[in-house]
């Protein structure tokens, strides 16, 4: 399995299954399909793609910026799993490691990626509304099923609107500065800063919990702003 989407069988990167699952959600698994090798000429520093991963070794393309280098290579598609770069197998790498590898490639040179498309399948229509609905069976469905790599899954309350907005903002900043999207990482950063009194304390907390990322100072400052905006609404 490359990744899963919630409530749609289509390759929709806005519906990816992350660490949380609503009580009424349906899961659709996307498996490996056609393998392809593409050559890309890196004429600019930015390739124009956003990378994420499924948490177990499959990094894939989540978004392609319109008019970018990658956008000009029509055989590269959203949802493609990146298997290797210049012959180096990257299966097992996290998304930020793949993004760093691509960023470090030399400008004005050709590089090769081996990609794996998600297998194409027939469309599935909306599920039947006959009989009792999930909401009728379980109540208001305001809880969220939290999936964990270690330990059992648990049902948690939905985050407040202010917290959810801040986490989404941090996730967007991760894409802007790092070329990745990771809602769990964004949540960890929010939790690290919610009780800190100033940007310096926040920076220290990030170094203690996420020091391997080596976030740039301007990114940390912008994230602190997102956390601060949310705290004012609590």
UniProtKB/TrEMBL annotation:
It comes from the Eukaryota. GO terms for molecular function: identical protein binding. CDD domains: GH2_GIPC (cd21180), PDZ_GIPC2 (cd23078). Residues 37-117 form the PDZ domain. Pfam families: GIPC1_GH1, GIPC1_GH2, PDZ. Coiled coil: none annotated. Belongs to the GIPC family. This is GIPC PDZ domain containing family member 2. It comes from Chinchilla lanigera (Long-tailed chinchilla). The lineage of its organism: Eukaryota, Metazoa, Chordata, Craniata, Vertebrata.
């Amino acid at each position: 399995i490359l990744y899963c989407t919630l409530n749609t069988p289509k390759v929709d990167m806005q519906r990816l299954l992350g660490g949380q699952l609503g009580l009424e959600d349906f899961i659709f698994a996307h498996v490996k399909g056609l393998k392809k090798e593409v050559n890309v000429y890196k004429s600019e520093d930015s390739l124009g793609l956003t990378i994420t991963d499924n948490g177990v070794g499959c990094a894939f393309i989540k978004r392609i910026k319109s008019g970018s280098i990658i956008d000009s290579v029509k055989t590269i598609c959203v949802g493609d799993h990146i298997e290797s770069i210049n012959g180096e197998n990257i299966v097992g790498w996290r998304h930020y490691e793949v993004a760093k590898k691509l960023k470090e490639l030399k400008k004005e040179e050709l590089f090769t990626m081996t990609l794996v498309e998600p297998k194409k399948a027939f469309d599935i229509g909306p599920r039947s509304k006959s009989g009792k609905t999930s909401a009728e069976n379980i109540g208001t469905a305001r809880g969220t099923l939290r999936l964990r790599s270690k330990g059992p899954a648990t049902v948690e309350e939905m985050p407040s609107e202010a917290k959810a907005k801040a986490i989404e903002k941090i996730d967007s900043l991760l894409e802007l500065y790092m070329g990745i999207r990771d809602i769990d990482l964004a949540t960890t950063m929010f939790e690290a800063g919610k009780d800190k009194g100033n940007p310096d304390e926040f920076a220290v907390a990030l170094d203690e919990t996420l020091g391997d990322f080596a976030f740039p100072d301007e990114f940390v400052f912008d994230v602190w702003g997102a956390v601060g905006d949310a705290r004012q609404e609590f």
